Amino acid sequence: MATDLVGGDIFVQTVILLLHYDETGAVGLVVNRPTEVGMDELVADDDAISAYSGPIYWGGPVQMNSLRALMSTDKAPEGAEIIIDSVYLVPVTDALENAPQDVPDLRLFMGYAGWAPGQLDHEMAKGSWHVVPASEDFVFAKDPGELWKQLVPPREHRAQRSDESDQVLTSALNSSQLPLSSASRTR
């Protein structure tokens, strides 16, 4: 169940890697929701894309008809944007042509999560998000379905913004995990 402040159930127990965060807004990818959707259901005309056999992740509710790729590599691919350490946002076709067989080091995402200017700051100030530094291990977790449970500290009182890095991993707090004291409730 999402906290009352997040609203709805779209972001319940999600872990989001922020790709872009500044005064114009924020963009991220949900990294812990693999789907059952196959590449053949998305794109049939591109051989490199249709040959991909790994899972497609639900990246968020915005532009569900778009694909994004994250790749873990020590060498930056051409046209790639570094996100953290050795994790790059790469053009999907380039990613698949360069590493189609290396599925553990490549993640494809349908859609993305987006916030208008100030919206994420407002949600964070209200305690809707827990913030931790991002890592390659989180983004490419072997069991992404368990990632949220691993990241949410027990008895978390309020989420706070971390200004150490623009690239942070965030997780929606489940209201059932909030302490029951009136001082720490988010309602």
Count of discrete alpha- or pi-helical segments spanning 4 or more residues? 6
CATH architecture of the largest domain: 3-Layer(aba) Sandwich
Low-confidence stretches: 164-168, 171-187
Count of distinct structural domains: 2
Tell me the span between the first and last alpha carbons.
14 Å
- What is the percentage of strand-forming residues? 25-35%
- Overall geometry comes to globular
The class by helix and strand makeup works out as: alpha+beta
Q: In the CATH hierarchy, what is the superfamily of the largest domain?
A: VC0467-like
- Classified by CATH, the class of the largest domain is Alpha Beta
* Fraction in helix: 10-25%
How would you characterize the overall build of this protein?
This protein has about 190 residues and is α+β, with helices and mostly antiparallel strands. It folds into 2 domains: about 15-25 and about 115-175, no CATH class; about 35-115, VC0467-like (3-Layer(aba) Sandwich), CATH 3.40.1740.10. About 15% of the residues lie in helices and about 30% in strands. It is built from 6 helices and 9 strands. Strands 1, 2, 3, 4, 5, 6, 7, 8 and 9 form a 9-stranded mixed β-sheet that branches. A hairpin with a 2-residue loop joins strand 1 and strand 2 (about 25-30).
